[in-house]
């Protein structure tokens, strides 16, 4: 049996690798067509476009491994069936359960690869790609709003470990690729949400240890206790001022990032930050659980591929099976994305939303295996 397992594993690994490379080449070509219009903007040249596309490939690899595992496994098993090798294996006492365990062992390799690309490689390379592209095009980011980027923070007394004494709304006009913030406005409120201060600054630079240095600062303070006196409102100017905040450059970059391109670690940290600031974190919680569940979708895809080894078509067998596999893979990606939006709209638990697509397809795989065994 070990000889058979090695033989089948070699066939599947080769087929999956071929399919994955073909998909990556296709996606890289489409990306290149999209980047051509930006070549010449700032210092962005053709070689930079190629490098940008290359650094985005790990992200595509993460997305495509389950689909490639499905199509590659279908192709390998269809070839074994066409040469009657799979039939010989079944005659040699290989049950469906044994075949499933054999595929699961191969699938474990792809599960680990999916996790490595999704958690370690792709988030890093995607961030590097976007930073390089933004710097070369001399561009900045403003979250798509005319007023710039908005986020919420808490005000603590005596540093990050002190007691919470109020809240702060932060508005940033532009975020440069270097991480510098341009056009900063801070609106500070007390526990009763009464405005206590408005702070504006030309720009802000991160100094480490949750400290931002504001430059060219104008501060207007409002005294709640002295509303009827001349000291109710006071204005001051500073050349620079340090502000302690839970917001870090990492959190700022998250505000522009696609949750599906972030690592589970970053998603968990940002979800905690949103929860601490009483903000809606459901979208990021769903993305976190999808990140945990998605690598195991490889097992579901390979389970869906197993019934194809039992089907025998007289003509066009392999090509028809591959076409069906492509449709199943595309359907899985569409339903996976659809359930994320449905779960968000209906406030389903994040874990349930992430598990439902895989559960539906796993049920279909079990049903298909039951059917082919009895027909």
Helix content: 55-70%
The total domain count is: 2
The biggest sheet amounts to: 7 strands, antiparallel
Structural class: alpha+beta
How many DSSP H or I helices?
10
Given as residue ranges, the uncertain stretches (5+ residues, pLDDT < 50) are none
Mean pLDDT rating: 85
Beta-strand proportion: 15-25%
Subcellular location: Cell membrane
Transmembrane segments: 12-30, 64-82, 103-122, 292-311, 323-344, 350-372
Membrane topology: Multi-pass membrane protein
Protein name: LPS export ABC transporter permease LptG
Helix/strand layout:
Elements lengths: L1 H34 L10 H37 L2 H7 L4 H41 L3 E2 L7 E9 L5 E14 L4 E9 L5 E14 L2 E12 L10 E12 L4 H8 L7 H13 L5 H12 L3 H9 L11 H29 L4 H25 L1
Antiparallel strand pairs: 1-3, 2-3, 3-4, 4-5, 5-6, 6-7
């Amino acid at each position: 049996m070990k000889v058979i397992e090695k033989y089948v594993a070699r066939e599947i690994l080769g087929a999956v690798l071929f399919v994955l490379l073909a998909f990556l080449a296709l996606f890289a070509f489409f990306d290149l067509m999209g980047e051509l219009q930006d070549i010449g903007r700032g210092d962005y040249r053709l070689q930079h476009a190629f490098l940008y596309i290359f650094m985005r490939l790990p992200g595509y690899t993460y997305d495509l491994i389950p689909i490639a595992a499905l199509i590659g496994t279908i192709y390998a098993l269809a070839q074994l069936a066409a040469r009657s090798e799979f039939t010989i294996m079944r005659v040699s006492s290989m049950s469906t359960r044994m075949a499933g365990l054999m595929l699961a062992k191969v699938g474990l390799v792809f599960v680990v690869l999916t996790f490595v690309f999704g958690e370690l490689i792709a988030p890093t390379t995607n961030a590097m790609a976007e930073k390089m592209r933004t710097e070369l095009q001399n561009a900045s980011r403003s979250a798509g709003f005319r007023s710039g980027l908005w986020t919420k923070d808490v005000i603590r007394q005596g540093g990050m470990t002190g007691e919470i004494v109020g809240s702060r709304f932060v508005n940033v006009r532009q975020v440069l690729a270097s991480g510098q913030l341009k056009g900063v406005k801070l609106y500070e409120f007390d526990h009763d949400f009464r405005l206590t201060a408005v702070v504006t600054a030309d720009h802000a630079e991160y100094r480490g240890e949750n400290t931002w240095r504001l430059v060219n600062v104008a501060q207007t303070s409002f005294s709640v206790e002295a509303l009827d006196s001349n000291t109710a409102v006071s204005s001051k100017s500073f050349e620079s001022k340090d502000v302690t905040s839970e917001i870090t450059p990492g959190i700022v970059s998250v505000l522009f990032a696609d949750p599906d391109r972030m690592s589970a670690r970053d998603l968990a940290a940002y979800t905690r930050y949103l929860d601490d600031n009483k903000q809606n974190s459901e979208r990021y919680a769903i993305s976190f659980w999808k990140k945990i569940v998605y690598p195991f979708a490889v097992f579901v895809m390979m389970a869906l591929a197993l019934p194809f080894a039992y089907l025998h078509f007289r003509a066009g067998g392999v090509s028809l099976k591959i076409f069906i596999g492509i449709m199943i893979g595309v359907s899985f990606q569409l339903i996976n994305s659809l359930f994320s939006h449905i779960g968000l709209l209906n406030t389903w638990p994040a874990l349930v939303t992430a598990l439902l697509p895989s559960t539906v397809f796993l049920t279909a795989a079990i049903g298909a295996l039951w059917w082919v065994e009895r027909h």
